[in-house]
Amino acid sequence: KGLMPTAKMAGLMAAAIVSDTVMFKSPTCTQRDIDVANRMARIANISLQALGQVIFSASGGGAKSAEEIFRTDYKEFHIAGHNLAVSQVTCMDSDRLLKRRDEFLQAMQAIRQKQKMDTVLLMITDVLLDGTQLLYVGDENTIRQAFDIHSEEENCAFLPKIMSRKKQIIPMLSGLWG
């Protein structure tokens, strides 16, 4: 539009793009996102890599309860008669959150019963691992089939290159359910 943002505003816009595109790894990322983020980073005199590390290091949960973390980015879907809830946490250290796996699964089971959901998923998307640790309760056979999960581990699997709920998780389930 021909307007020049201040350094602060450019930094905020760069942070929004880095966050939304998961450091440009999400399938929702476009070349325009990359170009604009680089331009904003130059104006703000910041490193996009360093900015991404700050943003995603901060999303580890801290002292929040498992349910609080789960509800931070929570969405419900109704697909072909199936009620589904999917939450996503994006971080740079999924191991730290996975140590609370049992807490998450209990919270997810409670939400499933209270909200009358068929399936509840938690995507712990790890920017450094370039994938998602998926925790799931409910229709486990469907989840295993949709994402070709063969691990012996119950209610948990690593999905390489899966970064987007909208572009990767929901389409896989929609495809199964019609």
What do these coordinates show?
The chain starts with 6 loop residues before the first helix and ends with a helix. The protein has helices spanning 7-20, 31-44, 48-57, 66-71, 94-98, 101-115, 140-146, 165-177; strands at residues 74-79, 82-91, 119-126, 131-138, 156-160. Strands 1-2-3-4-5 form a five-stranded mixed sheet. Helix 1 packs antiparallel against helix 2 and helix 1 (7-20) crosses helix 3 (48-57). The chain contains eight helices and five strands; from the N terminus they run ααααββααββαβα. The mean pLDDT is 92. With 178 residues, the protein is an alpha+beta fold. It is elongated and about 50 Å long. Strand 1 and strand 2 (82-91) form a beta hairpin.
Which key features would you list for this structure?
178 residues, alpha+beta
Q: Can you list the strand order of the major beta sheet? A: 1-2-3-4-5
State the shape: elongated
Number of E strands: 5
Number of helices: 8
Radius of gyration: 18 Å
Percent of residues in helices comes to 40-55%
Largest sheet: 5 strands, mixed
Task: Determine the N-to-C terminus distance.
Answer: 42 Å
Helix-strand topology string: HHHHEEHHEEHEH
Average pLDDT:
92
Estimate what percentage of residues fall within beta strands.
15-25%
Instruction: List segments where confidence is low: pLDDT < 50 over at least 5 consecutive residues.
Output: none
By oligomeric state, this entry counts as single chain
Structural class: alpha+beta
